[in-house]
Amino acid sequence: MAHWYARRIVNVNVNIIAAGLLALIPVSICVHFIHSTRFIENGKAIAAITFFLDVIFDFSIYFCLHYLANHGPFRKLVSHNPAYRGMSFLHDAGLVQMQRAILSPMLYIIWLVVQHQLIEYTSIGAGWATAIGGVIGIGSSRIIHTFWMMLEERRHAKLIANQSAQV
Asked: pTM for this structure?
């Protein structure tokens, strides 16, 4: 397991999935209570609250996990890809977060449409609808982001190889 986790693509995906799933817990609980108390029943308002809470929880949790895995006391377990060696924590995590931000419209459209459809047309509660939509959205964005990171690693490896050949 540690060998697979040492690959940057794997550890970034594991950290993002873990952050997303861990963030789903407080987000789903909040949405459940907001909806069940009938404090807010408007589907658009619930979607906005879901989005706002998820951004806060997911972003915070991901930064903590990324720091621990790649820059904190456990970094010796992760063999750094030469393409990313020497990057500061903020540059490294910021690069991943920028890529996620670019993919986030797709993630949230899938998530919030699934959530809305489940709340409106099924008997599934708002908390479960939030969790199911989140899992489907996270899964979809992980597939696309993984391919993106694979292309980036190849591009960085070629750049490093060209620089080495010139020396």
From this structure: 0.73
* Cα dihedral across residues 35, 37, 41, 47: positive or negative: negative
pLDDT at 110: 96
Using CA of residue 38, residue 43, residue 49, residue 54, what is the dihedral sign? positive
Axis crossing angle, helix 8-36 with helix 43-70, rounded to the nearest 10: 150
| Percent share of the chain, pLDDT over 90 | 31
Amino acid at 88: S
Identify whether the C-beta of residue 24 lies closer than 8 Å to the C-beta of residue 134.
yes
Residue 3's pLDDT is what?
A: 66
CA distance 18 to 30: 19
Structure tokens given for 81: 């890809």
Tens-place pLDDT, residues 123-145: 998 889 988 998 999 999 999 99
Question: In this structure, what token pair is assigned to residue 44?
Answer: 């658009």
Phi, psi of 145 (to 5 degrees): -65, -35
CB atoms within 10 A of CB 8: 21
Mean pLDDT of 78-106: 76
Give 66's contacts (C-beta < 8 A, 6+ positions apart).
12, 15, 89, 92, 93, 96
